[in-house]
From TrEMBL:
Domain PII-uridylyltransferase/Glutamine-synthetase adenylyltransferase: from-to ranges: 300-438, 818-899
Catalytic activity from the UniProt record: [glutamine synthetase]-O(4)-(5'-adenylyl)-L-tyrosine + phosphate = [glutamine synthetase]-L-tyrosine + ADP; [glutamine synthetase]-L-tyrosine + ATP = [glutamine synthetase]-O(4)-(5'-adenylyl)-L-tyrosine + diphosphate
Origin species: Pseudoxanthomonas taiwanensis J19
One term under GO cellular component: cytosol
Source organism, top-level taxon: Bacteria
GO biological process: regulation of glutamine family amino acid metabolic process
Protein name in UniProt: Bifunctional glutamine synthetase adenylyltransferase/adenylyl-removing enzyme
Region span, Adenylyl removase: 1-442
Required cofactor names: Mg(2+)
Stretches the record annotates as Adenylyl transferase: 447-945
Role summary: Involved in the regulation of glutamine synthetase GlnA, a key enzyme in the process to assimilate ammonia. When cellular nitrogen levels are high, the C-terminal adenylyl transferase (AT) inactivates GlnA by covalent transfer of an adenylyl group from ATP to specific tyrosine residue of GlnA, thus reducing its activity. Conversely, when nitrogen levels are low, the N-terminal adenylyl removase (AR) activates GlnA by removing the adenylyl group by phosphorolysis, increasing its activity.
Keywords: ATP-binding, Ligase, Magnesium, Multifunctional enzyme, Nucleotide-binding, Nucleotidyltransferase, Transferase
Family per record: Belongs to the GlnE family.
Length: 945
C-alpha cells in the first residue's frame, strides 16, 4: 500500500519553513555567518534564495567567506583560484570550490532579480570557460615537464584546441549542464621532451586528463561534467584529431546531425585563434552555398528519434526534449540557419536569440512570431535553470515532488504551481505550433490523380491522352519527352529518397505547367531544368518543400525562355524564387556596389572564389531585375538602367581585382591613373539582358615612369597589362558562367589601335581626328570605374569635344549618311516583321536624332552635356527649348514602348523582331516625324541593298 503524499504547506508557510531552516543552518555554521546574519536585509535575501536553491545554501554553509562577498548590493564575479604547478593534488578541490561558489553567485543574482536569464546563461558559459582555461593551463605545464611540447613545422609550440559545441559553443550554457567538447590540434609531430609522444597520443592524453580533472566526482563534488561523444565517430573515434584528419572526416563521413552540432562550435580553450581559423574552413560543410531544404530531412529524422525516446521514457514533462520544449525552438532556428545561412551570412550566428533576431530581420520569421519564440525560449530556459538550481542536478524535467514544484513557482514570482503550469502549457503550445509548421511540408495543391498515375506508370505504361486532357497542346510530343526523361540514366540513378521526392515533384510540375500560359513550352523547359538538378538533392527538396517556389518556377519558365535557360544552367537561381526580397524594390546603384564588394571579399583572397561569388551576385541581381520586368512591376526603362548599374558595380570590382594582381607582380606606377569608360548601352544606362559591354580604357602617367615592383614595367605596358586583366576577368568562365562579353572596337582607331590609350592621345584624337559617328558615341559615354580625378579629366575632354561649334548642314549630312548605311546593312525588317533596334522609326533612329541634336546645340546649351540616357537627353532638349514639349512626351512614350518590346523579346530568347501588325505604328510615326522635322533622311536609297 503506497504512502500518501503529505500536503504541501501554504505559500507563506513554505517560505517561512525554508527561510528558518536556511538561516538556522548558516548561523550554526560559523561565528562569521552568525555575525553577518544580524542584518535583516541580508536575512531576507538569504530567505528568498533558500526557497529557490538548496544547493546555494549548502555552498554558503561550506564557504563562510562567500556570504560576505554576496552581501554586497551588486556582488562582483569571484576571483579564480591560482593552481600551483607544484601541488597538483590540490587542483580538483580548488576548481570544484570555485565552481560551486561562482554558481551560487549566479543563483543569488538570478533569484534576487539582479540578472535576467540571458545574463545567467552567459555567466554559466564564462564560468565553464574559466574552469577549462585554468585546468588546461595547469595540465599543459605538467605535460611540458614530463613530455616536452609538440611543435609545428616552423618550430613553434602547439597547444591543444578545445572546441565547445552545443550550448557552450553558443554562449548560452544552462546552470547545471554538461559541456560538449571536441579536442583537436593543428599539426602532426612529436613532443620534444625526455619522454616524447606522438602528437595524437600527446593531445589525447592531455584531453583525457582535462576531462577527468573537471568531471571526476570527489569529496567536493564535480566541476563540470564533460561529454566527448560529439567528436568524429563518437566514442569509437580517437580522443584528439588533427585538423587534417577532421577535414577528411567531414568531407567523407560528415552527417546531417553534425551540421547542427558544428553550427554552434566555438574554440573555447587552448589555441583558440587556430581553432577559429579552422572553423572558417568548416563553414562549407555546415552552410551550403544554396538554399538547402535537405536540412529538413535531417531534422525530421532527429525529431522522430527524440519523440521515440520520449515515448519510451515517458518524458512529457521534459522542458528540453518534450513537445513544445527548448529543443524544438533550437531546431527551428538552426534549420532555418542551415537552409539559408549559405547565402545570408547574417544568419550564421552561434547564439540562438541573435540568430532568431537575424531571421526576423531577414524576413524568414514574422516579427510577432519571432518575439513570441524569443519570449518562450527565455521562459523555458529560466524555468530549466531554476529546476537545476534547486539541487545542482543535470535535470530537464519539472520535478514530480509537489513541494519542489511549489517552491520553483513561488521563487519565480508565481502565485503557485497551478499558475506556472498554465503559463508553461500555453508557452509549449505556441512553440509546438511553430515547430510543426516548419516540419510539415507546406500545404500544396495535390497533383491530379491522373497526372500522378501517368507519371508513375512511365516509361513502360501511361497514356498520352492524360496530357491532352490536362491541357497540353502537343500531348504526343510531351509524352515522348517525358518517357525519354523517365528512362534516362539520371532518373534511374536516383536514390530511393530522391526518387520519392521526384515522384512528388513531377506530377505537381505537370499540373502547374498545364495551367500556365504556354503548357508545352513550360514542360520542355521544365524537363531541361529537372535534368540539370537531378543530382542536386537540395533543389529537388526545395521544390518538394516549397510549393510556392514550384508554382513560381513554372510561371517564370512558361513566360521566359531566357530565365528558363539561366535557371537550368545555374540552379542556384532557384533560391531567388524564395527570396522575399525578389518581389520588393530592386537595390539601387550604391547597394549593388556594396553587394558586389561583399561577394569579392567573401573569397578571402582566392581570386577564383571571388570571381565565382561576384558572378553569383550578378546572376542573382539580374534575375531579380528580370522578374520585375517579366511581372511588369517596373517600367522597362528602369530595368535597363538597373542592369547598367549592376555592370558598373561588377566592372569596379573586377578593376580592383585586376589592379591587385598587376601590382603584386609589377608594383605601382608612381602618380599613375586609370579609367574604364563605358560606351553604347552601358554608357547610356540602357543595358539589356545578355548585352556585351562597350569599353574604352584610358590612363595618365609619365611616359618615362616605371613601376616600383620586383619586375618593373614602363607605364604603357603596365596599363596595357591592367586592361588585359580586366577583359580577361570579365570573360573568365567560372561555375557560375562568365561575367560579361566585352567589345573594345569603339576605342580610338578601333581594332587596329592599342587596347589602352593615354589621356593625352585620347584628347588629341577626339579633338582632331575622330569621325562624327565617334562624337555621337561620345554623347552616351561615361566613366564607370577608376580614379575619380581621371573621371573629371575624361568629362573635361568629352565636354570640350561635344561643345565645339559645328556646321549644321555638314553635321546633318554626316549623321544621316551613317544612319542610312547602317539601315542598309543591319535592318532585318521585312514585310511581316519590324526590327525594333535597326528598323525605320526604331531605337537607333531615335538615338541618332537625339545625338544629332546634342552635337548641334551643345555649343550654346551646356546642360545637354550632362545626361547620357535617351529619356533624360530628351527631357534636357525639351527644357532647353530645342524640342517642343509635346514632341518630347511623344518620343519618351515611343522610347518606352520600344524598350519594353525589346526587353520582352530578350526575356523570351527571341530576336528583337516583332510582328509588323501595327501595334507600334503610332510610336514609329512619332520618331519618323521628329526626324523629318529636323531635315534628316535616314531611309536608304531605293537601290541600296
Amino acid at each position: 500500500m503506497s504512502t500518501p503524499t503529505p500536503p504541501v504547506p501554504a505559500a507563506d508557510e513554505l517560505r517561512r519553513l525554508h527561510a528558518e531552516r536556511a538561516l538556522s543552518t548558516l548561523r550554526a555554521a560559523s561565528a562569521e555567518h552568525a555575525a553577518l546574519l544580524q542584518d535583516p536585509g541580508l536575512c531576507d535575501r538569504v530567505a528568498r534564495v533558500a526557497l529557490g536553491s538548496d544547493f546555494a545554501i549548502e555552498t554558503l554553509r561550506r564557504q563562510p567567506a562567500l556570504l560576505a562577498h554576496l552581501a554586497a548590493d551588486d556582488p562582483a564575479p569571484l576571483p579564480p583560484p591560482v593552481l600551483d604547478p607544484l601541488q597538483p593534488h590540490d587542483w580538483p578541490g580548488q576548481l570544484r570550490r570555485f565552481r560551486a561558489a561562482a554558481s551560487t553567485r549566479l543563483v543569488w543574482r538570478d533569484v534576487l532579480g539582479l540578472d535576467d536569464v540571458d545574463a545567467t546563461l552567459a555567466g554559466s558559459t564564462r564560468l565553464a570557460e574559466q574552469c577549462l582555461a585554468l585546468a588546461l593551463e595547469a595540465l599543459e605545464q605538467e605535460f611540458a615537464q614530463r613530455h616536452g611540447v609538440v611543435r609545428d613545422p616552423a618550430g613553434r609550440p602547439q597547444r591543444l584546441v578545445v572546441f565547445g559545441l552545443g550550448k557552450l559553443g553558443g554562449g548560452e550554457l544552462n546552470f547545471s549542464s554538461d559541456i560538449d567538447l571536441v579536442y583537436a590540434y593543428a599539426h602532426e609531430g612529436e613532443s620534444d621532451g625526455r619522454r616524447p609522444l606522438e602528437a595524437e597520443e600527446y593531445f589525447a592524453r592531455l584531453g583525457q586528463r582535462l576531462a577527468k580533472l573537471l568531471d571526476e566526482v570527489t569529496a567536493d563534488g564535480f566541476c563540470h561534467r564533460v561529454d566527448l561523444r560529439l567528436r568524429p565517430f563518437g566514442n569509437a573515434g580517437r580522443v584528439a584529431w588533427s585538423f587534417a584528419a577532421m577535414d577528411q572526416y567531414f568531407q567523407r563521413e560528415g552527417r546531417d546531425w553534425e551540421r547542427y552540432a558544428w553550427l554552434k562550435a566555438r574554440a573555447v580553450a587552448g589555441d583558440t585563434a587556430a581553432g577559429e581559423a579552422w572553423l572558417e574552413t568548416l563553414r562549407p560543410f555546415v552552410y551550403r552555398r544554396y538554399l538547402d531544404f535537405t536540412a529538413l530531412d535531417g531534422l525530421r529524422a532527429m525529431k522522430a528519434a527524440i519523440v521515440a525516446e520520449m515515448q519510451r521514457r515517458d518524458m512529457a514533462d521534459d522542458l528540453k526534449r518534450g513537445r513544445g520544449g527548448i529543443r524544438e525552438i533550437e531546431f527551428l532556428v538552426q534549420s532555418l540557419q542551415l537552409i539559408r545561412g549559405g547565402r545570408e551570412p547574417a544568419l550564421r550566428g552561434r547564439c540562438l536569440l541573435p540568430a532568431l533576431q537575424a531571421l526576423v530581420e531577414g524576413g524568414q520569421i514574422a516579427a510577432q512570431d519571432g518575439a513570441a519564440l524569443a519570449a518562450a525560449y527565455r521562459f523555458l530556459r529560466r524555468l530549466e535553470n531554476r529546476v537545476q538550481m534547486l539541487g545542482d542536478a543535470q535535470v530537464h524535467s519539472v520535478p514530480e515532488d509537489p513541494e519542489a514544484r511549489e517552491r520553483i513557482a513561488l521563487a519565480l514570482g508565481h502565485a503557485g504551481w497551478e499558475a506556472l503550469a498554465a503559463e508553461l502549457a500555453a508557452c509549449r503550445a505556441r512553440v509546438s505550433a511553430e515547430f510543426d509548421a516548419l516540419l510539415v511540408p507546406r500545404r500544396r495543391e495535390s497533383a491530379p490523380d491522373a497526372l500522378q498515375d501517368y507519371w508513375r506508370a512511365l516509361p513502360q505504361a501511361g497514356e498520352a491522352g492524360v496530357l491532352a486532357d490536362a491541357g497540353f497542346g502537343d500531348p504526343a510530343g510531351a509524352d515522348a519527352a517525358l518517357r525519354d526523361f523517365a528512362r534516362g540514366n539520371g532518373v534511374r540513378a536516383l536514390s530511393d529518397a530522391a526518387r520519392a521526392r521526384l515522384d512528388r515533384v513531377v506530377p505537381a510540375l505537370l499540373g502547374a505547367a498545364a495551367r500556365s500560359a504556354q503548357p508545352d513550352a513550360a514542360l520542355k523547359r521544365l524537363l531541361g531544368l529537372l535534368q540539370s538538378i537531378l543530382r542536386r538533392a537540395s533543389y529537388l527538396a526545395l521544390l518538394d518543400e516549397q510549393p510556392s517556389a514550384l508554382a513560381r518556377l513554372v510561371d517564370v519558365l512558361a513566360r521566359s525562355a531566357l530565365l528558363a535557360d539561366r535557371i537550368a544552367a545555374y540552379p542556384l537561381l532557384l533560391d531567388e524564387l524564395l527570396d522575399i526580397r525578389v518581389a520588393g524594390p530592386i537595390p539601387d546603384a550604391a547597394e549593388m556596389h556594396r553587394a558586389c564588394a561583399a561577394a569579392v571579399a567573401s573569397g578571402d583572397g582566392d581570386p577564383e572564389a571571388a570571381l565565382r561569388a561576384l558572378n553569383e551576385v550578378r546572376l542573382a541581381l539580374s534575375f531579380r531585375i528580370a522578374l520585375a520586368a517579366l511581372d511588369r512591376r517596373q517600367p522597362a526603362t528602369d530595368s535597363v538602367r538597373e542592369l547598367a548599374w549592376l555592370a558598373d558595380a561588377v566592372v569596379a570590382q573586377v578593376l580592383a581585382m585586376a589592379e591587385g594582381e598587376v601590382v603584386a607582380a609589377h608594383g605601382r606606377i608612381p602618380g599613375g591613373r586609370f579609367a574604364v569608360v563605358g560606351y553604347g548601352s552601358l554608357g547610356g544606362c540602357e543595358l539589356g539582358f545578355g548585352s556585351d559591354l562597350d569599353l574604352v580604357f584610358l590612363y595618365d602617367a609619365d611616359p618615362e615612369a616605371l613601376s616600383d615592383g620586383a619586375r618593373p614595367l614602363e607605364a604603357g605596358r603596365w596599363y596595357a597589362r591592367l586592361a588585359q586583366k580586366v577583359v580577361g576577368l570579365l570573360g573568365a568562365v567560372t561555375s557560375a558562367g562568365r561575367l560579361y562579353e566585352t567589345d573594345m572596337r569603339l576605342r580610338p582607331d578601333g581594332g587596329k589601335s592599342l587596347l589602352v590609350s593615354s589621356l593625352s592621345s585620347y584628347s588629341e584624337y577626339q579633338l582632331h581626328r575622330a569621325w562624327t559617328w565617334e562624337h555621337q558615341a561620345l554623347v552616351r559615354a561615361r566613366m564607370v570605374a577608376g580614379d575619380a580625378s581621371m573621371g573629371a579629366d575624361f568629362e573635361r575632354i568629352r565636354r570640350q569635344t561635344l561643345a565645339r561649334p559645328r556646321d549644321p548642314a555638314a553635321l546633318a549630312a554626316d549623321v544621316a549618311g551613317m544612319r542610312r548605311r547602317m539601315r542598309a546593312e543591319l535592318d532585318r525588317s521585312d514585310a511581316a516583321r519590324f526590327d525594333l533596334k535597326q528598323g525605320a522609326g526604331g531605337l537607333v533612329d531615335l538615338e541618332f536624332l537625339v545625338q544629332y541634336l546634342v552635337l548641334r546645340e551643345a555649343a550654346t546649351c551646356p546642360p545637354l552635356l550632362e545626361p547620357r540616357d535617351t529619356p533624360r537627353l530628351l527631357a534636357a532638349l525639351g527644357a532647353a527649348g530645342r524640342l517642343a514639349e509635346a514632341t518630347v512626351q511623344a518620343l519618351l512614350a515611343a522610347h518606352a514602348a520600344l524598350v519594353e518590346a525589346g526587353l520582352g523579346c530578350t526575356l523570351d530568347r527571341r530576336p528583337r523582331l516583332v510582328p509588323d501588325d501595327g501595334a507600334l505604328d503610332p510610336q514609329r510615326a512619332q520618331v519618323a516625324a521628329a526626324i523629318a522635322a529636323h531635315g534628316l533622311v535616314f531611309d536608304p536609297a531605293p537601290d541600296a541593298s
